[in-house]
Structure formats: C-alpha cells, structure tokens
Sequence to fold (163 residues):
Amino acid sequence: MNPTLVLLVTVGIGFLSGLRAFTPLALVSWVASWGWIPLGGSRLAFLGTTTGAVIVSILALGELVGDKLPKTPNRIQAGPLTARLLTGALSAAAICVSAGQTWFLGVFFGAIGSIGGAFGGYGVRRILVKRLHIPDFIVALVEDFVAIAGTLLLFARLFSRSV
Fold:
C-alpha cells in the first residue's frame, strides 16, 4: 500500500475518532474480523476477532446514545478527550500494522487527528446550534453519520488503492 495514503487515512481515522470515539474503532474491528485488514499475529489481533468487534460495537452504540443526553460531558474535557486520543491512536495503529507500516506512526497520526476532530467537531457543533439555531440533537445525528460514512469512505479509498 502507498505509505502516504496510509498516513492520510490514519489522520482521517483519528479525526473521525475525535467526533465519535468508538465508531471508527468498531468499524476497523469489523473490517479486521472479516479479514480485510490483516491483524493476526500482531498485538492488535484482538481487534480482528468477532468478540473484539462485538465489544467495541457495544461501546460505540452506547456512545451514540449517550452523546445525545444532556448530562454528557463535552468531548474536549479530559476524560472524553483521552478516550478519543486512545481510540484514534488504536484505530490508526491497526491501519498501519495491516499495511505493513510501523504501529507508532499510526498512534502518532491517529492521536493528532483525534485532537483535531474533537476540537473541530466541538466548535462546528456549537456554531451550528447557537448561531444557526439548529437543534443539538439534529447536529449530533449528522455527526454520527459523518463518523460512520467518513470511516467507510476512508476504507474504500484505502482498499481501492491497494489493489
């Protein structure tokens, strides 16, 4: 695979993890469990198991619901931001490992992307809600769609270039 494309995908996966911490990781896990990205034999092999994919998917579904609740903390607070950093780094590391690149590059670029996604998503969501008077729930649903569709588009790009 083209190393530049792989690194761009890792930044993108990280960015999308900044929007929804567990959604990109769940999709990475399912793609790995289907054998589309090889993780077997690596320290990330657990992501490529059906059990791993189910566990991460349950966390992702919980986050998709929890994000809409009024008491949910902002993504830029320490706890939620740390979760985004970790899942963005883990997702991106899995992409790098499967592409024959060093896991460290994935961790680094995934974490950087997740910071951008967290702060960028937070800012855009606040602007849309406050200035344009769009209900927060609607913006949150659009953000869910962007995280899911964006991750799938990144995979499509990565796989179309690796053939």
Summary: The chain has a mean pLDDT of 94. The first helix runs from residue 3 to 19.
